[in-house]
């Protein structure tokens, strides 16, 4: 694979056999790569980059024929996982976010650079009016049951599958 379009020093779209991912505006700390039925975004965590990844998620999944409810769930899972990484490592943490459709649903994977710090579920009930934080992984449990963490060449990967019927199936 080789770059076919250099939009800025910080953003390059690669040409692969996958459908074209919509071009993202020039954003520092944001590198986008197509993959079959989705994309991988290498980002420096920021609110601007999270908004862009959420928008790309919606655009790509809808183009793949995924229903609106599953798209919303994938966006929420993505937001929770990125938010957990930012809380653990601070703003501007380098992340790789992968979103793609499989025959088993929508894969949402977030890689961060620390293989030793693992996400932990808190005992906070989702419906607790006293809880101000700690509900994120509970939401991920509901929307992407069976998520898990694996070491990766980058550090670690939180791997989720949002149940959905692929439109291309």
Describe the structure.
With 169 residues, the protein is of the alpha+beta class. Helices cover 28% and strands 30% of the residues. The protein contains three helices and eight strands; from the N terminus they run E-E-E-E-H-H-E-E-H-E-E. It has helices at 47-63, 68-89, 136-143; strands spanning 3-8, 11-14, 30-35, 38-44, 94-102, 105-112, 148-151, 156-162. The strands form two sheets. It has a six-stranded antiparallel sheet with strand order 3-4-5-6-8-7, covered by helices on one side. A two-stranded antiparallel sheet has the order 1-2. A hairpin with a 2-residue loop joins strand 1 (3-8) and strand 2. Helix 1 runs antiparallel to helix 2 and helix 2 runs antiparallel to helix 3 (136-143). It is globular, with a radius of gyration of 16 Å. The model is unreliable at 1-20 (pLDDT under 50).
């Amino acid at each position: 694979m080789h770059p076919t379009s250099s939009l800025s020093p910080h953003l390059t779209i690669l040409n692969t056999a996958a459908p074209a991912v919509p071009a993202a505006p020039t954003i520092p700390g944001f590198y986008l790569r197509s993959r079959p039925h989705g994309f991988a975004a290498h980002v420096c965590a920021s609110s601007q980059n999270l908004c862009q990844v959420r928008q790309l998620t919606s655009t790509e999944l809808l183009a793949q024929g995924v229903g609106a409810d599953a798209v919303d769930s994938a966006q929420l899972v993505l937001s929770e996982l990125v938010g957990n990484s930012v809380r653990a490592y601070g703003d501007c943490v380098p992340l790789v976010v992968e979103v793609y459709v499989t025959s088993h649903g929508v894969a949402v994977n977030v890689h961060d650079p620390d293989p030793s710090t693992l996400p932990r579920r808190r005992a906070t009930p989702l419906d607790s009016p006293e809880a101000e934080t700690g509900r994120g992984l509970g939401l991920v449990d509901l929307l992407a049951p069976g998520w898990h963490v694996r070491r990766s060449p980058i550090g670690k990967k939180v791997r989720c599958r949002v149940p959905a019927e692929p439109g291309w199936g």
